[in-house]
Amino acid sequence: MSGPNPQHFRALVLHGAKDLRLEVRQASAPQPGELQIAVRVTGLCGSDLHYYQHGRNGDFIMRAPLCLGHESAGTITAVGIDVRDFQVGDRVALEVGFPCTSCAPCIEGRYNICRSLRFRSSAKTFPHLDGTLMELTNHPADKCHKLPAHISDVQSALIEPLAVCMHAIRRSNPADAESVARALSATRVPEETAALIFGAGAIGMLLTAALAATQHFSTLVVADIDEARLRIAASLPFPLAKIRTYLLPKPASEASPQAEEDLAQQMLSAFCLPNGFSRTYDCTGVASCIRMGIYATGPGGAVVQIGMGGASHPNIPLSAAALREVDLIGVFRYAARGYPDAVALMGSEKFQGVAEKVATHFVRFEEGDRAFELAAKGVDEQGKPVVKVIVVSGREAEGHER
């Protein structure tokens, strides 16, 4: 093993709903094949917020104290034996899913659907596997991704959610969207290919930016009920991309299926898309958005389900999808190519300025409760919209607080 080995570190540990404690833990040397990492930045995810508020995330219920966080990056402080290609001082992003590596999905590179997968900060398995909201952690070297020097700490905190977006893009196969649109055009003149993104949160904005940067669609429409967030989405630094926004009405207590279909048609009319969107990406998990997405997607298109925060049993208009061969594509986290794709895109010139739009708030490690409360409220004390909260450790907090 090489490098210094601190004896103690602090961790933010959730003991129950809104019972977050700052604890001191004993450090241990990295095992063979592991790296010891000083965590510099950790973004708060929607699943973290569910655990903090309710002590559970859907069906996954905490049965013991759990350290949250999984959107992390940091600096290597020690290298375990049998580890090559890493050295003390390297900056890395942490990929936090641990599959069996031997089942059929793992062999195919789809380890995210491995039945034995364990994920840091998740209560799905017991004993729980602690997350990365800690100052120091040991992590498998093969799940660490070296970061080039020009990727900032702010950018590094967004590698994990961007990996989700890159996996969603791969799953949705946008390359064939143009051919579908051309076939639908009565005049045989290639029409615009458009994608609809429900949700202007961190995933929605990063997905919009990734689609704009990779130029898969000529028009991107971001829909949300929050006008302030839509303004941020519209300001993403892609002057050549057509990024449009659509303000959805606040959801009624019981929206009728006809009202949702009518709203989908209104969106299509507003953007002159008589043949519908080629792809719809739902980043909300809200049942009404899923249904509107089916109605708004054109024949031969696809609805890509990324968000998981809404109803677990939405009433889906399957006939509206089946009769027009609209595919329903599920997305769960990311697979083998997610992180490499995300690091490459985040470090590219075309993606500059995106992270600063998405990472809206930075909070010191010692103020864990404030970080979660900011994420829960959605606006800060000055009324500024909260998109992504980044928890910053140690000296890295200097100059990042906002």
Automatic annotation (TrEMBL):
Belongs to the zinc-containing alcohol dehydrogenase family. Residues 31-148 form the Alcohol dehydrogenase-like N-terminal domain. Its cofactor is Zn(2+). GO terms for biological process: sorbitol catabolic process. The lineage of its organism: Eukaryota, Fungi, Dikarya, Ascomycota, Pezizomycotina. InterPro entries: ADH-like_C, ADH-like_N, ADH_Zn_CS, GroES-like_sf, NAD(P)-bd_dom_sf, SDH-like. CDD domains: sorbitol_DH (cd05285). Pathway: Carbohydrate degradation. Residues 203-346 form the Alcohol dehydrogenase-like C-terminal domain. It comes from the Eukaryota. Keywords: Metal-binding, NAD, Oxidoreductase, Zinc. It comes from Ajellomyces capsulatus (strain H88) (Darling's disease fungus). This is Xylitol dehydrogenase. One of its GO terms (molecular function) is zinc ion binding.
